[in-house]
UniProtKB/TrEMBL annotation:
A Pfam family it matches: Esterase
Signal peptide from the UniProt entry: none
Name of the protein described by the UniProt record: AB hydrolase-1 domain-containing protein
Record-linked SUPFAM superfamilies: alpha/beta-Hydrolases (SSF53474)
Length: 250
């Protein structure tokens, strides 16, 4: 995806998120804040953690995300990021994630993973849309997948498989979510992506309905639904489960 298109998409998505009244700190004029949590062993893979809209590196530290990862994957370095809302608003999230974090890691690690939490889950999907096949895998925790009208349209069509998105159109306020879902629909032609993507969400999840439009793209053993809501009580339980399943995969 050209940089201009990626920037437009990010800005438009954030305009909807802002209507929900969320706020976050961060200066998109500066590099993405990050904190590397090295493994105790020789690291062969890097896990990059993209936070939710109200989280920060400090929040990821409080919730012991690196420990959760390294308990299951002792050969993984963990990079906690402060890729917060202002970077998306400025159209800098995906270009900076690629140039500052992912590309430099590709020569150092055998595998690079994105763990995306809520807004970070959307960020992981946007990165894969812009740079398909660059990262090895995605671990998505309650990903934010846009607004209700497009979800209702997909449901009315009988699901994502039978949904007809129509001709590809330039990205704009009325089209960007359609193009995001179009890219997800095309995952059926990308077995390498679906084989290396895992998804978790809660049964009282506020994003449950759109997540369940996406989840049939994955095999059942790549999807985990747990009792819970859109919060860290759920994610702290779900992340180790996804790591265990992904770690057992070839």
């Amino acid at each position: 995806m050209p940089r201009r298109l990626a920037c437009q998409l990010a800005v438009l998505i954030v305009s909807i998120i802002l209507l929900c009244g969320c706020a976050s700190t961060g200066d998109p004029r500066r590099p993405i804040p990050s904190r590397l949590m090295p493994s105790g062993a020789h690291a062969t893979q890097l896990v990059v953690v993209l936070p939710g809209r109200g989280d920060s590196i400090d929040a990821l530290l409080r919730h012991r995300v690196a420990e959760l990862v390294q308990r299951r994957w002792p050969d993984a370095d963990v990079l906690l990021t402060g890729l917060t809302l202002p970077y998306y608003r400025a159209g800098e999230a995906i270009p900076r994630l690629d140039q500052q974090i992912v590309r430099p890691a590709l020569g150092r690690y055998r595998r690079v993973w994105l763990v995306g939490i809520s807004l970070g889950g959307l960020g992981a999907l946007l990165y894969d849309q812009a740079h398909p096949g660059v990262v090895h895998g995605l671990l998505l925790l309650s990903p934010y997948l846009g607004d209700a009208p497009i979800h209702r349209e997909i449901v009315a069509a009988g699901g994502l498989t039978s949904w007809k998105p129509g001709p590809v159109r330039p990205v704009g306020p009325q089209t960007f979510q359609r193009e995001l879902w179009r890219s997800l629909q095309q995952w059926r032609q990308r077995p390498g992506r679906t084989a290396t993507t895992w998804l978790a969400y809660g049964d009282h999840e506020r994003f449950r309905a759109p997540i369940e439009l996406m989840s049939p793209l994955l095999t059942p053993d790549h999807v985990v639904m747990l009792p819970g809501h859109h919060d860290w009580t759920l994610w702290s339980t779900a992340l180790p489960m996804l790591l265990e399943r992904a770690g057992a995969s070839p």
